[in-house]
Specification:
- The protein is mainly alpha-helical.
- It has helices at 7-34, 38-54, 65-83, 93-105, 107-122, 126-137, 142-149, 153-183.
Amino acid sequence: MNEVRTEGEQEGSAEFWALFQPVEAALRRYVAAHVPGYHQAEDAYQETAMALWKNFGKYDRARPFQAWAFGVARNQTLKSRRDAGRDKLVFQEDIAETVSDRLEACSDALDLRRRFLNECMDRVSKENRSLLRMKYADRKRIDWIAAKLGKTPNAVRLVLFRVREAVGQCLENAARRVRDMEEVPI
């Protein structure tokens, strides 16, 4: 059955997305820090996103969205941890709180690093991004990549080395720019 959204619901959806998108990565990290196991963390993150959407009407726009979202995430992760309470991998509550507090404190820095990495990766050729994806995202072996590309394993290693060096240098330059900006008195 297709639902027809009213104009007000569409505006609410656009507002939600505009607020949710900038905090999505930090929220995902927050949930992953509290819930053991990749699949459990993904489930908890999806539950958190659904809870945020369902309760968006209760959001007080005078408060920062990220703080509200983290509060909802905290409740969802506690529920997930309760559900997995017999699992030996579950952190003790005080350890989870410490991780949570530190993750919230460094969330902006992690987002900045991710932005720099994305900017640096945009400078890498499409072919070399594909090579990096095969090696690190798809976790393919060098000999498999070499056979797929029709190159020798040593040639693939050399290209990977050069690309990693270029991305590393780009990241160092970005970090240096931030440090230089922080040192300039306003």
